[in-house]
Amino acid sequence: MKRNKRFDKSLIILFLIILVTGVTSIILFLQSRTDRITEEINKDNPIKIVFFISEKNNLLLSEVVFYHPATGKGAILDMPGEVGSLIKSINKIDRIDTLYRRGDVEPIIEKFEELTGTELPYYIDIEIDNVEKLVDLIEGIEMFIANPVEIIEEDKMVLLPAGSVLLDGNKTKTFLTYEEQTGVSDIDKTGRKQKFIQSLLTRMGEKEKLLENDNVFNYFRSYIDTNLDRRALISFIKEIKKLDGERMVFQRVLGVSRKVDDQQLIFPHYEGNLLRETVKQTLESLAKVELASGENPTIKVEILNGTNRDGLASRTSQLFKNFGYDVVNIGNADHFGYEQTQIIARAGDISKAQKVANFINCKRIIPDDDTKKVAGLESSEQIDVTVILGMDFDGRYCKN
């Protein structure tokens, strides 16, 4: 006897319901899932990302970018390869860029975290030839070049005119790799690298819609090595267009140069404590909304050396500049016997002098009425505050 097999249609309907429900749930999950950058933004956390540019596995620049989504303010810290530190893998003092390996940047980032005292969770690593392709993809970057540059490359000469210019990929590559003439300061060299990163970030934000295009993004993604996935990278590009480039803070490692094994290395001041404190205060200042509102004008500072320590005023001026002060003059005081650092109000606004005093933990503030009695100073509309450094100043704070 033949048994009739009847197919229950209700099973088909049940199967389709389960299938549709499952697919819908997966789609909703994927759409609702937030990426790492969006999570940082939602939590009001600063975004900290390291940019590397290399040529044949040799590090050309390494810049740490700090950006706070609540204020749109950013900072760039230059981490030069010649910083000296203990490299545990070889158990010796060496350049930190010996840790760099394209495709394996974790060791050098761990060293950066040790030196700066902060976690650096994200990175973008670009080979110099891909910098050229990337810049062309975003239709050039705008750079300000203070002095014209003439570069002779084999059988051709490249001219980079002074002023604000739009550089294509090839000229950007030349701008990053040309050897400076002798006499160019380390500050100028550092500034060139930081201005490039600033311009790159600005241009990426301007070209957000272009980079969101799937075909364009695929090219963009192929030019960089990063630990940001597609969603996070797009979120970063969208967010970075809010960057207030005019208020960008530029930081660098301050230290002493020493010769170790026939190479000049930079050792950060005060066993690295100054650098870590600088990074900490930078992150705090980026988070302060009032500093982004324009209600706090730049304080114009004069720094005078009242001690017999050569170069103290110059070194201290870099500290003030790093934190956004406008240093309008540096020099020597009327004598070198100042025991205590003095903060002198020059524009009748004691609040500005108080801010400067708080910055270096100084207690001695002299009001405007007493200005002419101190060091023979005349009133000046160009200076808000004069700082006379005394023997109690250790390079960062006054020891009270």
Structural commentary:
It is a single chain. The chain has 2 domains: 39-287, 3-Layer(aba) Sandwich (Aminopeptidase), CATH 3.40.630; 297-389, Alpha-Beta Plaits (2-Layer Sandwich). It is 37% helix and 26% strand. The protein has helices at 9-32, 36-42, 106-116, 128-137, 169-177, 186-206, 208-212, 214-222, 230-240, 273-287, 289-292, 312-322, 350-359; strands at residues 47-55, 58-68, 73-78, 84-87, 92-95, 122-127, 141-145, 149-153, 156-160, 163-167, 225-226, 249-252, 255-260, 263-268, 300-305, 326-332, 342-345, 365-366, 385-389. Strands 11-6-1-2-3-12 form a 6-stranded mixed beta sheet, sandwiched between helices. Strands 16-15-19-17-18 form a 5-stranded mixed beta sheet, with helices on one face. α6 crosses α9 (230-240). 32% of the residues are buried. Mean pLDDT is 86; it is low at 291-295.
